[in-house]
Amino acid sequence: MSGMTIPLALAAALVVTSLAPAAAPSDAPASGMPASGATKTPPEIEALVRRCVEAYGGNGAIARASVRREEGRVTSLLHPGDVGHIVRSYQRPGKLRVEISFPGVDPEIRVVDGERGWREGTPVRGPRLEAMVLQAARLDLPALLSIPGVNIEDRGKGVVDGTTVRVLAIEPAPGLTVEAHLDVASGRILKSRGSTGGPLTPIAFETTYGDYRKVDGVFVAFHEWNWANGKTTGETVIDKVEFLRELPAGTFAP
After folding, report:
1. CA-based radius of gyration for the chain
2. How far from 186 is each of 96, 144, 165, 182, 230, CA to CA, in Å?
3. Domain 8-12+41-243 sits in CATH 2.30.30
4. Cα(204)–Cα(134) distance, rounded to whole angstroms?
5. 233 three-state secondary structure
6. Is CB count within 10 Å lower at the N or C end of the chain?
């Protein structure tokens, strides 16, 4: 991903909206501005996106979710039989720090800040960086979908655990795609799918969501099931969510 330029959907965020009260739809919080050449979204899809925003608590809730810290438990195929501890810190636009620790091994720390990323303090590019960019994007899908003028690809209908969904796709960075599989009735995102890697090394990450709870007016999925290229990789159970005005200095440094 050398020389990659993060598009405006992740690189020109209106971060000040994280401190604002509920706004009118035209002032809805966003992770960025529409990409150049954006096409008009069909009314049916616009209505579904509005339903999605309301499902997660409305414009004010989406604004509050621009800075967050989550803490919980995680399982992984790389650590069979063990339960690890995970801390995720996120801030628009596209900043994410993930700390994972399992018994008996050194903690793993992943950081992405726009077009730069690190693992254990070492710079990463290519698929490792792309995977983190996709993870940051999937954590903020309601906001990304609601950016005025954002390019949204309608990929039609699907089914997730017996529920009819509409699949909407956006590009958080050139060559990367994130799909939101939205329950057409409630507007909630039941599944996300991020793809990267190009034709030679394609990688697809999928996450399904459950155990929704309300935190400071924001609906949050406290249970995630994860797959990579169709194979299960583990689960994440969130125990604590905080929506903050700011994170400590250095959170997104290597």
Report:
1. 17
2. 28, 18, 10, 8, 26
3. no
4. 10
5. strand
6. C
d(CA 194, CA 238): 21
SS3 63: helix
> Look-up: residue for tokens 């966003």?
30
CA-based nearest residue to 212, from 222, 224, 201, 198: 222
Q: What 3-state DSSP class applies to 201?
A: coil
How confident is the model at residue 177, as a pLDDT? 94
Look at the block and give the residue holding tokens 């700011």: 246
Closest to 160 measured CA to CA, from 184, 136, 135, 138? 184
Give the span between the Cα atoms of 34 and 39, in whole angstroms. 10
pLDDT digits (tens, 9 = 90+) for 7-47: 433 332 322 222 233 333 333 333 333 444 456 788 999 99
The residue to which tokens 């609906």 are assigned: 219
Whether the upstream peptide bond of residue 172 has omega within 30° of 0, thus cis, is no
Q: What's the pLDDT tens digit per position in 102-139?
A: 999 999 999 999 989 999 999 999 889 999 999 999 99
Nearest to 73 by CA among 59, 60, 83: 83
- Beta carbons within 10 angstroms of residue 158's beta carbon: 15
Residue with tokens 């490792």: 128
Give the per-residue pLDDT at 203: 82
Amino acid letter at 102? F
Structure tokens at 238: 């969130």
Cα end-to-end distance, the chain, whole Å: 18
For residue 86, list its beta bridge partners.
72, 100
Helices and strands (H, E) in the chain, number of each type? 5, 13
The type of residue at 59 is N
